[in-house]
Amino acid sequence: MTIVTGGIGLRLGRNAARAACLAICAAVLAACSSTEETLDLSSYVETIEPADVLYNQALANLNSGRLKEAARKFEAVDRQHPYSEYARKANVMAAFTAYKLGQYDTAVQSARRFINLYPTDEDAPYAQYIIGLSYFNQMPVVTRDQRDTQLAIQNFNELLERYPGSIYEDDARAKLRIARDQLAGKEMQIGRYYLERRQYPGAINRFRRVVERYPNTRHIEEALARLVETYFAMGLVGEAQTAAAVLGHNFPDSQWYADSYALLQSGGLQPRENEGSWISRVGKRILPG
User: Could you tell me the pTM of the whole model?
Assistant: First the structure.
């Protein structure tokens, strides 16, 4: 009986202590609710400002170089006044601000959203241009994967196709030439790798790709010369002669042609074009310089 009684007394003591603790906590909470430390939820409510005020503040920040604050204000315009004229303008300016900040993924997303919402708007070409620029600025060196280069080409081409005659057309074409030259450089790098290891079919495929797809890049002379070298090494002298003839016709003063000519002469051969060769057909599309 003593053991049982003692157990009950222990449980009662614990319950009393728990009750006293709860009472103290309740008293503390009640005291806190009556002090100035009460949580003020109103501080979490966003202040709604007129659209024109927000937009002009964003422009002022942008012009002053406070890009992050400008981005925040442009975002506020779109959030607080989503269907206003200022929201439309803020959308494309948000894309530009993200681009200037180097936040290229955000710039692409914002610009695409603008085009989806306003495909015929006067600023749609600019939004498309920002997308192209964002990928263009991320183009890696030729030894790396060229996904961003391909996307730059894709989006600049889309700009030219969807918005012909825009004020961004000339710059888009100039950047297209640079991007295409980059892709040609990648093909040349791989082709040289195969050629050095005497993997001639792989080398020909890469050099041929440059001649067929990128005939107006600065790599075309070397590509033709490498074809002469590769075909000559394989004993396909007819193709080697044709590649040299096309190279000489388009770039008669090129060092690449001089080297190719000397290589053929070492085998008692001369450049001679075979009209049935794929090189001859493609060679008619090459525009020197």
Answer: 0.79
